[in-house]
Amino acid sequence: MTPQTENPPMTSEIKPLDSRSRAALEALLMTADRPLKSQAIIDPLNLLDRSSESISQETLDASIDALNEEYESTNRSFRIERVAAGYRIMTLPEHAPVVAAMHRARAGTRLTRTQLETLSIIAYRQPVTRAELENIRGVACGDIVRTLMDRGLVKITGRAEVLGRPMLYGTTPRFLDTFGLANLKDLPKPEDLLPTMEQATTTERI
Question: CA-based diameter of the chain, in Å?
Answer without folding.
Answer: 88
